[in-house]
Each structure stands twice: as structure tokens, then as C-alpha cells.
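Section 3.1: Structural characterization of target chains.
Under the original work plan, the team committed to producing a structural model for every single-chain target entering the pipeline before any wet-lab resources were allocated. The record below documents one such target. The sequence was received from the expression subgroup and is listed exactly as submitted; it comprises 362 residues.
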Amino acid sequence: MTRSFAELPALVEELLGEHDRVALIYFDAFAWRFAERHAGHPLLANATVEKWSAQFPSTTTVHTTTIHTGLPLAEHGLYEWHVYEPRLNRIITPLWFCFAGDDERDTLLAAGLDPAEVFPWPSLYERLPVPSHVAMPQRIGSSPPSGRLLAGATVHDFSSPQEGVATLARALAAEERAYGTLYLPDVDSFMHMHGPDAPAVPLAVEATLSAIRQGPWPEGTLVLVTSDHGMAAISPERTTYLNVLWPELAGHLAQGADGKPLAPAGSARDLFLHVLPDRVDEVHAELAGRLEGVADVRRTDDGLFPEIGDPLRTRLAPLVVLPHPGEAAYWLDPPRFEQRFLGQHGGLSADEMEIPLVSFVA
């Protein structure tokens, strides 16, 4: 059976009992298909490479929260880029700590929301028995969410993958025993804008793998390389906007504190709909008919999630639209909401859900 990213924090704790130093490289959007494509790279050719599965939804918010808290999605409840926040009765963007659609980050601070109310605690680093080091791009490492998620770790800034790897390697070398993690978002960002099949993608992946291999890691360090999700090719032109396809849909959704429908939750590959409780059957049937051949419409309580704990239940919408390969479904409300990407993730396709776990000893 394929193992899940949700098991990774427990595996890290187990491996820290067997190795003095463990480094986890969180290579955003490094899908299994990219590991297969680059199997001849010296890093992968000389390492153990296993196929794992992302958690659903296959999105960064889910996995970032899991890897820093040790909790699976059911227990932390942050399931997508845009999610419902019950304290505010609004859709928010947790990792940017803003209202969904805001151009500026951290607007939730002015609304009186504390990151500790959104992100669970204690962090994994506050529980580990060894010193922890986290290397993050500066704009991320100093953010309010990181202040909560990375509590207990020493945080290091960097501006390039090569610098990030070298920074984490030096930090681990200074400790007799330690855990370190490095977040590399650049390839993910590039594929969102240019698509996963853009000619520059293989070059970017090769350069990142080479940087990871070079280290310089302290001798005996166990290095793990994994990802949170893959990437599906989509396009703005093929995007189906549900409130354009069915203008009456907005009237079937719950309203937020701003008087607008609670939309969009999720992303263009997994659009969650906060349908009013007495309208779920009607909306399900209507959208299934209108989206035939484009997307599946599913109830979120029909087995999509292996477990739904209270933190997830309070945020989760009753319906989700899952577009077929090459398709995207979103909510149109310019300039705040419009689908402009050539690559996206969040869905259940193999391109999005299959990830590698690479391991080698330096």
C-alpha cells in the first residue's frame, strides 16, 4: 500500500532515533512523474526512491501545516489555499494570512485574528528531543504563520536553492544531533505561471536536484527529499466559471460576514462549495448535469477524506467540484478572483497526488 505524506512526521521522529542528523527537503511540486523523468540524475540514481501519496486536497496549505505540526489534515483542518474561517465567517488564505482575494498579505491581523487561532500548536519542533533548524525564503520565514508553525526551531533565510541547501547543511554541521528542513518553492511558482510542461521545467528540476546533492551535508546525515503535490496542466481559456455557467448558484450558497457568497474555497482543481444545508441535493444534481464531461461533483462526506475531525469539519464545505484532466473550475469575481494559471493542483489525479520520497545518507 502506498504511504501518505501524513505519515512523514512520525517517520522523521523514528529516524531521529537512528541517525544523529536528519534533513528533510520539501521540494514543492516535485511530483512522482518528475522523479521518474529525472531518474538518471546522480541524486536519484544513488538513492532509495519510493512512491508516496499526497494528502487530499493535494495542496501546499495541507502539507505545510502537517510537516510543521506533525498533524494530519483531519486534526489541523487547513485543507486548501482558500478556506472558510468560522471565527470571521469569511473565506481566508491561511498561508498569506489574509482574506481570500486580497493583494496584500497579513490583512487578518487588522481583523483581530491571531495566527495561533488558525494554526495548531505546539509545533513539531517544540516536541522533538533535538535542536531543529528550518531554512525558508525570507518572505516566508518571517511571516505571521511561520512565527506560529516554526516555533521552537531556528529559522534561516535564503535567496536561492543553492544558498538554502548550504545554509541548512552548515546549521546541521554545527550540532551533534539535529533535525533540519528546507522549503524550496521556486519550481512550483514557475509551473503555476508557465505550466508543468514548459521547456524550462526540466532544467529547473535538474538544477534543484543538483543543489540538494551537493550539500555540503555533514557526513552521515540522512537526507530525505519529498513533495506536497504535483501539478496539472490547465489554461485560463478552458476554465469553467460556475457562477457564469449557472448564475443562480450564488443564491444557493451561504453568505459570509461581508454579505457575499462564501466563495471560492479551494482552487480551480478542487472547488469547494459552501451550499446551504437544505440546498445540497439540488445543487449537487444541477451541477452534475451542467458539468458532465468537464468535472465530477462529489459530497465531501462520501469517502474523499479518510477521517474528518472537528478542526476540518468546522471549515469543510459539503460539496466539491473536481475537474477532469486538463479542465479547471473556478469562481469569477474580478479583480479578486479569476483563473490565470497554466498549472494548478489540489485534485485527485495521479499528476497531482503521486509524490516521491527520496532518501540517501551523505
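The mean pLDDT is 97.
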